[in-house]
Amino acid sequence: MPEYSFILSTKLLRRITKACAVLLNETRIALNDEGIAIRAVDPGNVCLVDISLKKEEFEAYEVKNSVIGVDVQRLHSFSKTIRDKLAIIEGDERTLKLKASKISYSLSLIDPSVIKKEPKLPVLDLPAVTEVTGNEFRNAITMADKITDSIAFEANDSFHMVAEGNTDNVMVDLSENYEGDAEERTVIGVELLKEVAKAIEKDDIVKLEVGTNKPLRISIEERTGIHFESYT
Predict the structure, then answer these.
(1) Which of 81, 132, 152, 154 is most buried (most C-beta within 10 Å)?
(2) Residue 172: inside a domain, yes or no?
(3) Predicted TM-score of the model (pTM)
């Protein structure tokens, strides 16, 4: 008997695996009665990936409390080839099996004890909050990448992304759904944000939270429960 068995949409599977794969090679996945949870820091210790998927988001869900170690690069690579709407995943601590229509894929798992343990999620006061579309966020990062290697996120009576190069400057107003009135500013590396942007779809609603000299928290709340926190 499998230790876990669940059915989910292949679209959701690709979103979750892609959000991990842009920053991680392997990760621990916690399975329990409430759903699955992934919390890991990239190899450079500059960005935390935090994902929670409640059992209600699955078409079927039955697990024993456990932790498995997964090569997310390999799993995401395979998930991109699936054309069916649903995927069946089941397995034990040694092997994960994925089925879709006539395709069966078996992935050898990693001993979770050799993978870096989940970090504690820091309690942060990030008073400046705004929401933008995924398209706005991705375009802003693309523009900044042309002129600089770091981006400032600034908030006072408005919320802006500021990129300053040797000869060119870009400021993008992200204030349409801004909440806050304190002066806050943090600076993040463009290369990190480019990787995060790969996990964001153009129609996503992206929440940005900023505090002075603190991590930038980027959240894609709808269904996926995906959060990124930068530490650059």
Answers:
(1) 132
(2) yes
(3) 0.90
